[in-house]
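A protein record pairs a chain with a discrete description of its three-dimensional fold. The following entry can be read in just this way.
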Amino acid sequence: MIPRYTPPAFADLWSSATKYTTWLEVELAACEAMERAERVPAGTADRLRDKNIQLDADRIDEIEKTVKHDVIAFLTHVEELAGDDARWLHFGMTSSDVLDTSFAVLLTRASDLIAEKLDELIEALTERAKEHAGTPMIGRSHGIHAEPTTFGTALAGHLAEMKRGRQRLRVARDEIAVGKIAGAVGTYAHLSPGIEAEALGALGLQAETVATQVVARDRHAAFFSTLGVIAAGIERLATNVRHWQRTEVAEAEESFTKGQKGSSAMPHKRNPIASENLCGVARIVRSAVIPALENVALWHERDISHSSVERMIAPDATTMTAYGLQRATRLVSGLVVYPENLMRNLEMTGGRCFSEGLLLALVQSGKPRQEAYVVVQRAAMKAFHGEGSFHDLLAADPEVAAAMTTEELERCFDIEHAVRHCGHIVQRAIDAP
């Protein structure tokens, strides 16, 4: 986590103070459940809460240097602050009961914060897609002019993708909202399923179906994979903006604020820095996916090969996802669109983007498809080499003249006809859950 890329809520979420406070929440929830099961003296948890324990992260770290165990260091510090009642904390529990359950609490909180950022991007894309639902532009495949579409339709594709990301995130959140308070190998040797269910319920979690010493890591792999897919969607959006902003394209560009500078050497530059930054951010988020998948295969009931990985990827991947969504929202909201340049580029090939409609019109007139293809392609290639306009070459072609009237030919070049369903497509994306 680097401050430059860390929203304040995530700096707090992944701080040592929050980590240890969450550990204490888990211990107290378990203690209360054990009280009701008459495994711990009544009133223990309330007395501990009344002490208003103020944990000192530096002191815990100092103790850990000696004991070489973070949870023992934490419990030792709590005993220093709380006295005799603290001996009932962690009763029958193992370290992973605390670590995995608190990890679930923190990941669900991170999910909720990410969901808020995702909703903001969805709202921004909705507004811009609606604004440009009917703004014509050239569609591209392989980077080459294909057929007309609208700028709103292009944005609607990103909108629909982010909505799918939101649905995946909901599923992933539910899957990692799972803890365990089941003891050393998950068998409740000194606890019970009832104690676990009550404690986890107080924390907003469900119990792992079959725990070992840890919660199964396929859950976390699915969560980080979901973040990777969301990040890939952010990068796809950013990549499109980078293309639209190229000098020779100039269809849209990032907002350029007063006083902003584009280059230390060239005063004329207006660079797509936000989009390029987002592409880099996406790489960092996706880099967490493979380690998360590799964490699934732990030895027997548990080893700690996953631990160091999660200490790094959880703060970094969640924080960078939130940052990426936040910056992408500003990018979309401030995007400057140039309809006149969109139309200029659409018209750049002199109507060759209408070639499929011409092909189909010739087929409808009775001409075999492959013969019709040759006729249209012949005119397109001549136009490409500067031998005349695509329209005029077709109008002068005797095979075309024999197959359709002048009015029928003109209808094939109708931009309104080509994009007539784009408004429906945009609305479908807006209406999608």
